[in-house]
Amino acid sequence: MKRSWMTWLAAVVMAAPPANGQVVQERIDLDALRKIREEGMSRSRALATAGYLTDVIGPRPQGSRAVKEANHWTAKQLGDWGLAKVVVEPWGTWGRGWERVRYTGNIVKPFAQPLVGQAMAWSGSTRGLVRGPVVILDATDSASFQKYRGTLAGKYVLLGDPPKIQQNFSIESWPYLAMEDPPRRRRLSQEDLENPNLKPDFAWSPLATRLERRRAGDRFADLIRQLKGEGIAALIVSSPMPYNIIRVMAIPGWQDIRQAKVGEPIPAVVVSLEQFGQMHRNIKRGIPVEIEASVQNRFVTDDSLGYNTLAEVPGSDLADQYVMFGGHLDSWHAGTGATDNAAGVAVGMEALRILEATGLKPRRTIRLGIWTSEEGRHLGVAGWIDRHKELWPKISVYLNVDNGAGRLRGLWTQSNPFMAPIFQQIFAPIRDLGVSAIKEGNVGGNEHQDFDDVGIPGFTFLQDPLEYVLRTHHTNADTFERLIEDDLKQAAVVLAWTAYTLANRDEMFPRKR
Asked: Mean pLDDT across the chain, nearest whole number?
């Protein structure tokens, strides 16, 4: 069996030489792989870990008491499993936390029906149960708002037009246009993995696109400031997703709110696309629409710091060097943060547990980072990186798990010309687990990007899509039911094996020039 695997490895290496033309034979320990697979497949704790985070602790908005409870709970679990140097470490100041308390909403005219919705993150509260008429606000900035001044007191304000439904999925338009089911597989086939045109779901956006989105956000934040003095009942915006799926977002200007630079924000609710459209059409018809709602949120001010949880398996002869992996603990509040990203946290914790339980001794130290504030502009990982500059030359590579709850199928290159032959050798013995793809692409939005930004090789896994972009990302559908135990087991085994093999390399992982 070993001879057959080595024959396969030699074929893989010869087929794909690195950019410098030199091939380095990786240390492929098949006995270690056998132990990792046996432990990970037979005694997995991954689903139980994700279940506690989602069903017991629940949604974990940054700065909330729940995310800090999750910091300490994950640390306790890692300590109970025997991991070394378990610590809950502050990364910096976050400011005020925000928590959803209660929402009740009904459309009462032209006919009674429950109003499906969720509070916008960092929005304020109504004064109890408030009934009022619904109006359309056709304004995009403070200049176009002037005609509404003095006319909105006590009213529920619909902002903008209903999102348009598109039949074909497009990353360029998502999530700003609603979408029907795109013609896309839940699982990636081998043909998909071999397709040179396969692109990341979350690619790095061009600078011009990012700047335009920021300018649009600034304009909406200015509009929200104008609304604050009008005494509206609440702001109503549409979810960008159909079928009563509520994809939440933060109220524009939320950064100033969390830093207490402004006072109490206005109440704001994201409602179902279908009901937003219904109300909008009736108002255009001249039919009166009324809402009765209570929105109750609270701010948390007893601890302004943010925290990461870290743990490790100590190395041996190269213990002062590191292979790192991780995912983020914080989540949005609409669901319970299962696929984004209790799954990634559970997989990372399980991978470290597997390595400890098997008694394997990696050459380099393998460290897990459970980050917070990923949904708040990556402040957790960025804070850790900034506070530990002395480790930059010692971190060989960083791996991230945060693209849903599907199986790991490969990696994106992040424009590193040296990585493909290394990972092709590492993945060769686990092709039967569905791992084979090394795909050209730069993925944004995950913590690997922060390591890559300072010159540390950082990569994120290509995963089976399942329902992530389509239904669960930042929505009320992101719950425990979306998790598949076999997928979590596979991902933890793949991550443990990949990290262990990288930790045993003779050289540090090659960096971009």
From this structure: 90
DSSP sequence for 230-241: TT-SEEEEE-SS
pLDDT score recorded for residue 179: 53
Determine the Cα–Cα distance for residues 469 and 377; give it in Å rounded to an integer. 19
Three-state DSSP class for residue 491: helix
Where exactly are the structural domains of the chain?
29-94+304-415+447-503, 98-300
User: Alpha-carbon distance 405 to 463, whole Å?
Assistant: 8
What would the CATH number be for the domain defined by 98-300?
3.50.30.30
181-212: per-residue pLDDT in tens?
554 568 888 888 888 888 887 766 665 666 67
**Rounded alpha-carbon distances, angstroms, from residue 84 to 43, 81, 108, 347, 357:** 21, 9, 58, 18, 13
How far is it, in rounded angstroms, from Cα 434 to Cα 410?
A: 8
CB contact set of 503 (below 8 Å; sequence gap of 6+): 315, 318, 323, 362, 363, 364, 365, 366, 396
Hey, CA dihedral for 41, 428, 496, 343, is it positive or negative?
negative
- pLDDT in the model for residue 221: 81
* Cα–Cα distance, 100 to 103 (Å, whole number): 8
Q: Which residues 6+ apart lie within 8 Å of 58 measured at CB?
A: 66, 336
In this prediction, residue 176 carries a pLDDT of 45
Residue among 113, 114, 112, 159 nearest 134 (CA): 159
Q: Which value, in Å, is the radius of gyration of the alpha carbons in the chain? A: 24
Cβ pair 308, 367 in contact under 8 A: no
Q: Where are the strands (E) in 36-189, listed by range?
A: 84-93, 97-109, 113-114, 117-119, 130-137, 156-159, 165-166, 178-179
What share of the chain has pLDDT > 90, as a percent? 76
Mean pLDDT lowest for which of 45-54, 237-246, 322-331? 237-246
Over 70: is that where the pLDDT of 18 sits?
no
Q: Cα–Cα distance between 289 and 113 in angstroms, integer?
A: 12
- Determine the topology of domain 29-94+304-415+447-503 in CATH: Aminopeptidase (3.40.630)
Residue entry with tokens 């630079």: 261
DSSP per residue over 418-487, as a string?
A: THHHHHHHHHGGGGGGT--EEE---B-SSTHHHHHHTTS-EEEEEE--TTIIIIITTBTT-SGGG--HHH
Residue 292's CB is within 10 A of a number of other CB atoms, namely 18
Name residue 455's amino acid. G
